[in-house]
Amino acid sequence: MTANALDALLSRRSTKLLRAPAPNEDELARILQAGMCAPDHGALRPWRYVLIRGEAIGRLADMALDAVKRSGDKRMTPEKEKSVREWLAAVPLVIAVAQKIEHDNPKIPEQEQLLATGASVMNVLNAVHMLGYAAFWSTGLGTYVEEVQESLGLDALDYRFLGFVAVGTLAVELPPLRRPDYREFVTEWTGVAA
C-alpha cells in the first residue's frame, strides 16, 4: 500500500453532512467492486446491496418512517421525523445493506458470514472516501423493523438487514478528527503465564 493510500485510510470518517453529487456510474461500479474484495471464508459472498436514488429516496423515507411509527417506536417523534426527512432530501444515494444467511452451511458459521458482510461494507466506505466522497452507515430509518426489510425485497428468513449507507459529497468542510491511540486497545500475548 502506498503512503497516500494509507493516509487516506487514516483520514476516513463517517458524516451525515452530505449533499449531491453522488459518485457517477463508473465510480459507483468501482466502489461496489471494492466491496467484492472483502475477506470471505468459503467465498459465500453473503453481502447484498440495494441501491436507492433520486425520487426513490423520498419513497424510502415515507415507507420506513411510516413502518417505524406503526412499530410503536416512541423515539420517532414529529421532530425526529422532520429531521430524518430533511437529511434524506439532501442525500443523493442510499445503499441498503444486508447479509444473505446460509442457514445450512456446516463449515462457515453465521457470525463469519456477518463479519464478511461488515468487511465488504468497510471496503465500500473506504472506496467512497478514496474517491473523494463521504458516507454514513446508519442503522436508523427502520433497520430493525421487519416491514422495512421486506419492502426492500429482503425476506427476513433469508437475510439479516444491516442498515443504510448514505453516500454523497461533503456538505461542509470538517475539521480533522482526533482518534484514540491504538495502544489503548492492543495487548500482546507472549505465551507466558502471568
UniProtKB/TrEMBL annotation:
<dbReference type="GO" id="GO:0016491">
    <property type="term" value="F:oxidoreductase activity"/>
</dbReference>
<dbReference type="InterPro" id="IPR026021">
    <property type="entry name" value="YdjA-like"/>
</dbReference>
<feature type="domain" description="Nitroreductase">
    <location>
        <begin position="10"/>
        <end position="168"/>
    </location>
</feature>
<feature type="binding site" description="in other chain">
    <location>
        <begin position="137"/>
        <end position="139"/>
    </location>
    <ligand>
        <name>FMN</name>
    </ligand>
</feature>
<dbReference type="InterPro" id="IPR029479">
    <property type="entry name" value="Nitroreductase"/>
</dbReference>
<dbReference type="InterPro" id="IPR052530">
    <property type="entry name" value="NAD(P)H_nitroreductase"/>
</dbReference>
<comment type="similarity">
    <text>Belongs to the nitroreductase family.</text>
</comment>
<keyword id="KW-0288">FMN</keyword>
<feature type="binding site">
    <location>
        <position position="41"/>
    </location>
    <ligand>
        <name>FMN</name>
    </ligand>
</feature>
<keyword id="KW-0520">NAD</keyword>
<dbReference type="InterPro" id="IPR000415">
    <property type="entry name" value="Nitroreductase-like"/>
</dbReference>
<keyword id="KW-0521">NADP</keyword>
<dbReference type="Pfam" id="PF00881">
    <property type="entry name" value="Nitroreductase"/>
</dbReference>
<keyword id="KW-0560">Oxidoreductase</keyword>
<keyword id="KW-0285">Flavoprotein</keyword>
<protein>
    <recommendedName>
        <fullName>Putative NAD(P)H nitroreductase</fullName>
        <ecNumber>1.-.-.-</ecNumber>
    </recommendedName>
</protein>
<feature type="binding site" description="in other chain">
    <location>
        <begin position="12"/>
        <end position="14"/>
    </location>
    <ligand>
        <name>FMN</name>
    </ligand>
</feature>
